[in-house]
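Chain A, query sequence.
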Amino acid sequence: MKFPNAAKGVKKIFNAEIISLIAALIGGAGLILGLIGASKETGESVGTTLLAVSGALLIVSGIALLVAGIINIVGYIQAAKDEEGIKRAVLCTVFSCAFAFAAFFENQTGFLGGLGTVLSTISTVLNMLVALFMIGGLMNLSAKCNRPDMVKRGRDILNTILVSYIITFALGLLVRLGAYTSAFGEGVIKWLSGLSALFTVFIYVLELIYVAKAKKMLAET
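Chain A, predicted structure.
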């Protein structure tokens, strides 16, 4: 094995990506249930139940993202022994973990809601940087392994992820803007929230596919 440290590290990163994907699915479901629960069309009793379930799901999602972040940090540090470029992802992941609790405020209003928006935005930017640094590092490893196909695939995925993060960021701001100003109807806000959740899942799927291929490449080297 040409890059044993990278192989071990990428295996941990792969596991963390799976946890992150599950967390994104849970968080998306929690956000949508929270919006339904807060809707004026939902009865008080049902609404209270949905909000409670939403809160629980968002907490679980936040904890899962924190666990994934810790596993990622260990994996990045290990992989960085064979690829210096991955080191840049470590610091961003540390800060991203610090903002994982932003999910707790997703369905809040007033000051807490505003705080949640700020923290969530910072977390999104940090996650984007982590993805860019991680995939960039894996592309460098692919070049060292004489795999131009993996370098090209990584470049394509980087561009797609960058666009997807920009769209997710914009959708998140629109959802919060609609919640604060009533600029959109509740149906539009739910639709935007669902679309944002789908893009988040899409990003994690893209990352997972590339990390899986990198893991296989390093194991065969």
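The CA atoms of residues 2 and 188 lie 52 Å apart. The mean pLDDT is 84.
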